[in-house]
Write a sequence for this structure.
């Protein structure tokens, strides 16, 4: 028993140390060089039933400084007046182009198809794929392009903060982000070892995007933002990720329940819809957490793994500070981390129960999604 307690404690200590280093190494989006030329960029946004806030989102985008910007908004089969709102915006600003999709072609997800259509005629050196709920600081896009050119990167993702979240919701978001930090550290290494992408801010050189076939290889990828980075990485292009909590904000759920709902289509997809692998992952994590929590009742040294698990609060508080959130949210990360296997189990259960994924008003059978995945290698 003692050796098992020591192993579990060592695992949690290693995770806490690794996460703390990853957060410390995460670079903030740098300032723009004073003499950097104004970049040309096409922003592509796929929207569906976003009438409530689309005009405010576009207004912020059009205020971007130090860039020559074209905005292509693709209305993906909206039924709530989004198209009328977009027409009002386009009427007053020639930089805005509105494309309307009335019917989804076979073997395409609605979002990937909309992004492919929106980027089709772009001739600018840079493309930015973003979401309708993203709020960018006025100089964020210019700074990202300047930083990419200085780093010789063809792909940039920014890590956002989250709006209007509860204290426990923030603790859970920090737990999610700490898992991502491990991957980001490998992306930002001198020799890039893996890939990542964020739907709120995926900036890519247009020529690199064309070289990988655009969104055509991603037409059935639920995690199209991540796999855009994956295809670029495979093709030898360089990605960089910058922390942008002061420059980019999104809505991703206020509470833990909201987070479980929002990630329903994503968590199972992260494990490539492998049922056995997902079940094993859930059981392993739950067993590890359960053993950690009950260890004090099993042995006099049972406090070791529990104390080590509590060290997860250290990187949590570090990341909370960088997010300009209360340190209490970071202190609650060990509690928030429990949500990860719950979210994964929910995603597995819902997807298997309904036999696929429902997204943007369309149902996609699981067999179709598995068949259309980018092959892992």
């Amino acid at each position: 028993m003692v050796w098992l307690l020591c192993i579990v404690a060592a695992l949690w200590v290693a995770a806490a140390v690794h996460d703390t280093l990853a957060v410390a190494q995460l670079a903030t989006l740098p300032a723009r060089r004073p003499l950097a030329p104004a970049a040309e960029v096409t922003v592509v946004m796929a929207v569906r039933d976003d009438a409530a806030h689309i005009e405010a989102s576009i207004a912020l985008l059009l205020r971007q400084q130090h860039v020559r910007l074209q905005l292509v908004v693709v209305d993906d089969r909206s039924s709530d007046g989004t198209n009328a709102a977009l027409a009002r915006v386009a009427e007053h600003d020639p930089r805005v182009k509105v494309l309307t999709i009335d019917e989804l072609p076979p073997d395409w997800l609605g979002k990937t198809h909309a992004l492919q259509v929106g980027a089709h005629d772009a001739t600018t050196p840079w493309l930015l794929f973003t979401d309708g709920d993203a709020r960018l600081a006025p100089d964020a896009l210019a700074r990202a392009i300047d930083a990419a050119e200085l780093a010789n990167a063809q792909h940039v993702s920014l890590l956002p903060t989250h709006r209007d979240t509860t204290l426990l919701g923030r603790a859970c978001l920090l737990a999610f982000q700490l898992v991502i930090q491990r991957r980001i550290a490998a992306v930002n290494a001198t020799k890039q070892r893996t890939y990542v992408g964020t739907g709120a801010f995926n900036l890519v050189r247009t020529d690199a995007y064309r070289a990988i076939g655009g969104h055509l290889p991603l037409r059935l990828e639920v995690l199209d933002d991540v796999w855009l980075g994956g295809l670029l990485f495979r093709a030898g292009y360089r990605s960089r990720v910058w922390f942008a909590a002061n420059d980019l904000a999104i809505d991703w759920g206020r509470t833990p329940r909201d987070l479980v709902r929002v990630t329903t289509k994503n968590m199972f997809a992260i494990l490539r819809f492998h049922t056995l692998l997902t079940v094993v992952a859930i059981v392993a994590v739950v067993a590890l957490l359960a053993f950690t929590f009950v260890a004090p009742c099993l042995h006099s040294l049972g406090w070791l793994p529990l104390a080590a698990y509590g060290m997860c609060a250290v990187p949590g508080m570090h990341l909370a500070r960088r997010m300009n959130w209360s340190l209490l949210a970071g202190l609650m990360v060990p509690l928030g981390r429990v949500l990860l296997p719950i979210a994964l189990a929910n995603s597995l259960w819902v997807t298997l129960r309904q036999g696929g994924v429902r997204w943007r008003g369309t149902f996609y059978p699981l067999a179709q999604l598995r068949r259309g995945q980018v092959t892992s290698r």
About this structure: The chain has two domains: 2-23+258-371, 26-254.
